[in-house]
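Two proteins, back to back. First:
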Amino acid sequence: MKIKTWLWQAPLGLIFVGAGLSMAIDAGSQKANGQPWFGYGTLALVLFNAGLCVFGGAIIKRVKDEMKG
């Protein structure tokens, strides 16, 4: 049995979103404490946006699967 693509993409996207958001909050804390934060914060935003893209792709795939029947 083949696992549908959206079934693993959706949780992976949510993990990326959560990790990126946590990292962004941590980068903000580093900035407030006068520590280097720019590179870490940029990586956090990249991870957050990648998670949104992966999750959105999973939704699109699920809708297409449902329309096929």
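And the second protein:
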Amino acid sequence: MAVQVITLVVFAAVFVIAEVRRSHIGIVMFAAAAGMGLLVAGLPLDDIVAGFPVDILVLLVGVTFFFGIAKSNGTIGRLVDRALVVVGDRTAALPLTFFLLTGVVSAMGSPLGGLVMAPIGMTVAHRRGMDPMLMALAIGTGLSAGGFAPTSLFGIVTWGTASAAGIALNPLTLFAVAIIANLVLLGASYLMFSARSRVPVTTGGGAGPEVPGDEQPPAREPFRVTHWITVVAMLGLVAAVVVLAVLGAEPDVGVLAFAFGAALTLIDPDSGRGALKEIDWSTVLLVGGIITYVGVLQEIGSVDLLGDLAASLTVPLLAALVVCAVCGLVSAFASTTGILAALVPLAIPLVQQGGIPGWALICALGVCSSIVDVSPFSTVGATLVATTVDEQERPRMTALLTRWGLSMVVIGPIALVGALVLPAMAV
């Protein structure tokens, strides 16, 4: 147990020290993972390095490169112009619109498929003078809500694992809980971030403020062949994600983005070269270092230790809170799908001991594991930071998403256990 405790303490200490020294947390965390793994846990170096999330690297680089091409050749700008004309002056409707669009895509098999909305949504937010944090949370909550559809991965893993353990859980109930919880969070994000605005960016298409006097806003740029090809590629990316999910294959959005990006860069090499600067390597290193250390924690049983401590609590309601908090905390730094599959079984002993309704606890646990995903140390949050248009806003986004994600580790369990488990126990 001493090894597990030491590595957990060092994990927390690295965050504090790196923040105080204003150092890159990902790089320091990767070094700490190697040190703890080799010197304290006695793990082989190959096992430690294997924890580096190559899949997330591929996702971040592939998505940002692909949409970097669409941005570089002007396609995204033209699409945003048209979208803003349709929305008109109803800027306040944009977050809800992207919540719904992201939720629909996420419900089609792969929650991470909803990330294809991130570059478009963040560009729209920039053009409309909207706080990027509001748009990021709209996309993040939409992804979380859609991910628990009976047709999507979060939902399938959660109610499937519960069913295998003999816990009755209607998948539509799980989906409804996820939608309501994330709509509440979207409403909170409106209250917190809608007041911060700036003058919209004017690039034509009616996206900016009214032009004084007799001057007319500049005409919208027309779509050319390259732009139509890029639009087809964007639709192809979304269609590929949906079709593969329907066929039962888990789509890798990063690999698909690389494939479509490679085709586009062969068609338009100049835009391909321009897209390289859109890749946010700082975010890749940040996520990579954090998740590598979390891999060490999982390898040596630190995560299991937290789960066992929760299950050993004699007060069922307190145990439910701790289990949900552990799931949320770990999920903020790792794969939500993996955490759901690994930690949902932690709730089974609490249900078997009696007193806690299984459906309520599993719903709370599942949603708690997902609402933290906007943390910049996870795939969703990292993508939202990487696709923030204004590079000067990215440090602020990282800080705010960190606070939001980690606050959900506490707020989520209290709210969901209080709203679901406690009333169900009283029935």
